């Protein structure tokens, strides 16, 4: 699976949008971009995933560049409870049965 | 979303003893479950893939005789840390893939193991 690069940490003001970038320049055609987050001392939580089109759900939006070499996770109105480590993962085939390889992630701190 | 439970949520044991951790899928059946380990301030590392009805598949560097995995049923996988040592102290997390619907993995809440 392609490797991803994320900034180690970011701050965001409560109520503002949090934009978390991810580079995956070696992504191949059948690889999906997944985002998970991990709140301290809990198991990771699925957020969203996509192949090439932008995606939106009740938690977040995922913007994937046209060349698919990078993406941005957007939390439209960050709250204090969104403070967590956010992992961008590229996985082949979009199959949940395939293993996930976690990188370092981005530690997002939402501040009042 | 799907619910995955782990038991116990935390455990403290003496060096040399064995500890069993359970992972249960509460609302759907799973032929595959994953076991991860996370050391403080580090990311999750996949240890092994638990397969119902067959042997687990271990990642490179993970000792299969030390970390025994039993996928007892379609809703239960257990990880037993045998002859635990302080360096085995970690956060152990399981995940269950849901192949239908959103087609993603659901994670348990984790088990924190401290070996004295």
Give the secondary structure arrangement, pairings included:
The complex is a heterodimer of chains A (112) and B (116).
Chain A: E1 9-13, E2 18-23, E3 31-38, E4 45-50, E5 55-56, E6 61-64, E7 70-75, E8 84-92, E9 106-111
Parallel strand pairs in A: 1-9
Antiparallel strand pairs in A: 2-7, 3-4, 3-8, 5-6, 6-7, 8-9
Chain B: E1 4-7, E2 10-13, E3 19-25, E4 32-38, E5 45-51, E6 57-58, E7 67-73, E8 76-81, E9 90-98, E10 104-107, E11 111-115
Parallel strand pairs in B: 2-11
Antiparallel strand pairs in B: 1-3, 3-8, 4-5, 4-9, 5-6, 7-8, 9-10, 9-11
Give an account of the 3D structure.
The complex is a heterodimer of chains A (112) and B (116). By secondary structure, chain A is mostly beta strands. Chain A is 0% helix and 46% strand. Chain A is built from no helices and 9 strands. In chain A, strands 1-9-8-3-4 form a 5-stranded mixed β-sheet, with no helix packed on it. A 4-stranded antiparallel β-sheet of chain A has the order 2-7-6-5, with no helix packed on it. Chain A is globular, with a radius of gyration of 13 Å. The relative contact order of chain A is 0.34. With 116 residues, chain B is mainly beta. Chain B is built from no helices and 11 strands. In chain B, strands 2, 4, 5, 6, 9, 10 and 11 form a 7-stranded mixed β-sheet that branches. Chain B has a 4-stranded antiparallel β-sheet with strand order 1-3-8-7, with no helix packed on it. In chain B, a hairpin with a 2-residue loop joins β7 and β8. Chain B is globular and about 40 Å long. Chains A and B meet through β3 and β4 of A and β4, β5, β9 and β10 of B.
């Amino acid at each position: 699976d392609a490797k991803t690069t994320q900034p180690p940490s970011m701050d965001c003001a409560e109520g503002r949008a949090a934009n978390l970038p991810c580079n995956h320049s070696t992504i191949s055609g059948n690889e999906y971009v997944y985002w998970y987050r991990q709140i301290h001392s809990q198991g990771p939580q699925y957020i969203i995933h996509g192949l090439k089109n932008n995606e939106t759900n009740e938690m977040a939006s995922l913007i994937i560049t046209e060349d698919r070499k990078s993406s941005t996770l957007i939390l439209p109105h960050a709250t204090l409870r969104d403070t967590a480590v956010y992992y961008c993962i590229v996985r082949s085939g979009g199959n949940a049965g395939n293993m996930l390889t976690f990188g370092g992630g981005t530690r997002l701190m939402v501040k009042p | 979303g799907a619910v995955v439970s782990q038991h116990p949520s935390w455990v403290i044991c003496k060096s040399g003893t064995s500890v069993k951790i359970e992972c249960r899928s509460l609302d759907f059946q799973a032929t595959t479950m994953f076991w991860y380990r996370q050391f403080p301030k580090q990311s999750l590392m996949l240890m092994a893939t638990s397969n119902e009805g067959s042997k687990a598949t271990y990642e490179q560097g993970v000792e299969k005789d030390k970390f025994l995995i039993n996928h007892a049923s379609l809703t239960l996988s257990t990880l037993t840390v045998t002859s635990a040592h302080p360096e085995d102290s970690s956060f152990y997390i399981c995940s269950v893939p849901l192949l239908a619907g959103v087609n993603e993995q659901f994670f348990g809440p984790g088990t924190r193991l401290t070996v004295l």
